[in-house]
Every structure is written in C-alpha cells, then in structure tokens.
Amino acid sequence: MPSISASAPGKIILFGEHAVVYGHPAIAVPVEGVRAKAVVMARPTAPQGSVLIDAPDISLNALLADLPQDHAFSRLFTALQSYLEIDHFPAFHLRVTSSIPIASGMGSGAAIAVAALRAVGTFLGRPLTNEEVSLLAYESEKAYHGTPSGIDNTVIGYTKPVWFVRGQPVQFLPISTPFTLVIASSGIHSSTADVVSAVRRNHEADPAFSDSIFQHIAQISADAAAALQTGNMATLGPLMTENHQLLQQLDVSLPELDTLVEIALQAGALGAKLSGAGRGGNIIALVRPENAQTVADALLRHDAVETILTTIAATEG
Ligand code: PMV
Q1: What does the pLDDT read at residue 233?
Q2: Structural domain spans, the chain
Q3: Which residue out of 87, 152, 223, 297 is catalytically annotated?
Q4: Gap from CA of 256 to ligand 1 centroid (Å)
Q5: Taking the complete model, does pTM exceed 0.85, yes or no?
Q6: Of residues 294 and 33, more confidently modeled
Q7: CATH fold for domain 179-312
Q8: DSSP output for the chain
C-alpha cells in the first residue's frame, strides 16, 4: 500500500506575542523554508487500533496507546477520533520529521500536528480542511501550555499571514509588499508554558502595569497591520524594535536576546525583536534583501547558533 505524506510550514510571530493571550491582536506569518513532514503507512498485519508513532527528532518511537494522556500526540489523536466519530483507528505507522527548530518559537509542535492531521485524515479517507486541522491541532497545543492563544495552529493550519485575536474568527492579513526577515536562534531553549506563567504572575501582581504594556503592544500590532497592508515598510522596522522594548518591560527578554537585537540593528537591520514566548528562542530582524546576509553573518559572529533568511510573500489575505 502506498504511503501518504503531508507537510506544514513553520511560523513566526511578527507582533503581539503575550498580549495575544490576554485578548489583544497579534500578527503571525508562515515560514515556508522550514517544514514538518508526516508520512502514514498502513500496518496490515498489526491489530486494529495499533498506531505506531515514530518521531526521530524527539527520540519518540512508541505506540499511541502507551503514551501519557496529556502527551501532544495523545491529545491530537483523541481529538481526531472523537471529531471523526470513529471507535478505533485502523493500524498505521506515522513518521514525523521536521526541519523547524524545536522550542524556539517557530511553531514546531503545531506544524507537526498539522502535517500529521493532514496525512492521517487523507489516509482515513477523510481529508481535513484548513479549518479542521487548525481546530484539531489546537488540542495538541494545550500539551505545551494550558492556555495557548491558538495563533500557531491558525497561521500554520491556514498557511497564510494572520491578524489573530483569540476567540474571534480567523482574519487573514493582506501583505502588499514582500519583505525579508533574518531569523536568528539564540540556542537557548525556553518553555512557552513557563514564560506564559511568569507573565501571568506579573499580571496578577500588577494588572495595571501589564495591561498598559499589552495595550501599547496592541497599538503597535494595529499600526504594523496598516503598514503591511499599505506597503509602508519604513515604519515596520521601528515598530518591531518598539515591540521588543515592551517585551523587555514584560520581563520576557534575556540579555542574550537584547544583544542579538542590538547586533542586528548595528549591522543595518531596519528593526528587530524577540519573537515568540521569549527567554530564549529567536529574534527576528527586518532587513533589506541586499543586506540580509550581512546581518545574518553579524549575528552568527555574536552567538546566534543558526540563522534562517526568509522572504514573506505578498498575499491578498
Ligand atoms: O514561543 P511560541 O511561538 O510558542 O509563542 C508563544 C506566543 C505566546 O503569545 C507567548 C503564547 C501564545 O499562546 O500565544
């Protein structure tokens, strides 16, 4: 029997991380150059329901039934099974691989979930729509932190730039002018759950302070969305750097991330910020295409462990 494959891109949050957990808007775009891939094959001799998951990047090779209930794959397949109203899965082998850096704010968990859902859905004769994969992938996102905003599964499930507000219908963001980003990894792994909890504790301790920062970030996201739609790219860089300063005030940056932002700006980036949960992971820098390699090289000379150059295409939204 032939195998069935599907893939999904990584993502990056351009503006609005953390504020988005509190109902404010955020902007995220797919990053097509890095991808998660899922391959499904029938296991004709295995008993019904025997689902073998093989994910070498995270050293996982196990039967679904043996995984803890709160494991991302358990959550994913429980959600899929109840959504499709099936008693048992037929026996199959799911192999997932990914070139998306793990735990660095590029949506590797959501991309793996989306790729797996697409491949398994097709294998089961029930190809899933973008809306369905986004909805179901959200269930597995809960394994990483209890209150995910849903931005990762949305931008990756639909593979389009999004203007995302938690709990509201998805809105795509038209982008009139392509732009180039350098994504640089600090090499520091951070737990989104821990950083989101830390922000929550600070918010509980001083709601007025946190809320004023979230409001300010929301204004930046709105200004950035307008700039992206009109192609007023000159304002986009400064908005990024301003967003980074607000994330510093939320205490989710690190000296290492601040240094990478500074290096990118000194090397000619138009703006830079941390992206994702923070306290590790990536920074992103908006660059002129002809300057992208110079900025990437400067970052690599100063402790970035990896850089990804990506161009975000114009879209009609
Ligand atoms: O590090 P990432 O890409 O998983 O981003 C987390 C983004 C937060 O806004 C901090 C959390 C969320 O659920 O949106």
Answers
A1: 84
A2: 4-172, 179-312
A3: 152
A4: 19
A5: yes
A6: 294
A7: Alpha-Beta Plaits (3.30.70)
A8: ---EEEEEEEEEEEE-TTGGGGT--EEEEEEEEEEEEEEEEE-TTSPTT-EEEEEGGGTEEEEGGGS-TTSHHHHHHHHHHHHHT-S-PPPEEEEEEE-SPTTSSS-HHHHHHHHHHHHHHHHTT-PPPHHHHHHHHHHHHTTT-SS--SHHHHHHHHTS-EEE-TTS--EE--B-S-EEEEEEE-S----HHHHHHHHHHHHHH-HHHHHHHHHHHHHHHHHHHHHHHHT-GGGHHHHHHHHHHHHHHTT---HHHHHHHHHHHHTT-SEEEEESS-SSSEEEEEE-GGGHHHHHHHHHHTT--EEEEEEEPPB--
Q: Is the CB of 149 within 6 Å of ligand 1?
A: yes
Q: How confident is the model at residue 261 (pLDDT cuts 50, 70, 90)?
A: very high
For residue 202, give both structure tokens.
Answer: 């600070």
Least confident among 14-23, 102-111, 138-147? 138-147
Question: In the structure encoding, which two tokens stand for residue 219, read together?
Answer: 């204004």
Mutate to test the pocket of ligand 1, among 22, 142, 151 (most ligand atoms within 8 A of CB): 151
Separation of CA 218 and ligand 1 centre (Å): 15
Ligand 1 proximity of 140 Cβ (cutoff 6 Å)? no
* Domain 4-172, CATH: 3.30.230.10
Backbone angles phi, psi at 306, to 5 degrees: -160, 145
Q: Is 251 a catalytic residue?
A: no
Q: What is the pLDDT of residue 91?
A: 97
pLDDT in tens, 34-56: 999 999 999 999 999 999 999 99
Q: Which class for 70: exposed (0-12), middle (13-18), buried (19 or more C-beta within 10 A)?
A: exposed
Does the pLDDT of residue 104 top 80, yes or no? no
| CA gap 313, 166 in Å, rounded | 25
